[in-house]
Amino acid sequence: MDLKKFDGQCVQIIDDDGNVFEGFCEYCDQEFNECEFGLNEDSLEILNYKFLKSTIKNIFPVDLEDNSFLEGYGLLEQENSSSYDVLEDTLLCEHIEHVCRMLNYLIADPLKIKNLTTNDCQKLFKLLKDFILKNEDQNITDRCNRLLDFFEKK
């Protein structure tokens, strides 16, 4: 499997455990992985997750024109909501689809961020408010407002 051809594309990766991950990926060659991480094989990264070639069972390009994500959010969003730093990285990434999927995940059950400290929750609220002020995408601002409304009522 030639992972390099997927560099910069939106993909769906099925790992050797049958888990499905979706998002924009970056290719990392064996030389880079060995130097940086001591890993001796090529990989793809989606957000902060590295998928080694040996752990990828299958990979498919995702055509966003068809809105072909399986769900409004997935495993990456579930995993990335457990710490503020990773949550922030996801919400500030350059691919709007990742931002929307994370916001979808949080909206589905806002109490998922209950493991965040009070300080981290305050930083998240500020980040959401900044999104509303700086973002021109109405979908993003609507989602941010829904989350803020939920927490202001609590």
Structure description:
- By secondary structure, the protein is of the alpha+beta class.
- The chain folds into two domains: 64 residues, SH3 type barrels (Roll); 79 residues, no CATH class.
- The chain has six helices and five strands, in the order ββαβββααααα.
- Strands 4-3-2-1-5 form a five-stranded antiparallel beta sheet.
- A hairpin with a 4-residue loop joins strand 1 and strand 2.
- Helix 4 packs parallel to helix 6 and helix 5 packs antiparallel against helix 6.
What is the distance, rounded to the nearest whole angstrom, between the alpha carbons of the first and last residues?
49 Å
Uncertain stretches = none
Percent in strands: 15-25%
Rg is: 17 Å
Overall body shape: elongated
Output mean pLDDT: 87
Number of helices: 6
Summarize the structure.
The chain is of the alpha+beta class and 154 residues long.
What secondary-structure arrangement, pairings included, does this model have?
Layout lengths: L9 E6 L4 E9 L1 H8 L5 E4 L2 E4 L3 E6 L13 H6 L3 H8 L4 H13 L9 H17 L3 H16 L1
Antiparallel strand pairs: 1-2, 1-5, 2-3, 3-4
Helix pairs in contact: 4-6, 5-6
Task: List its salient traits.
single chain, 154 residues, SH3 type barrels, 5-stranded antiparallel beta sheet, 44% helix
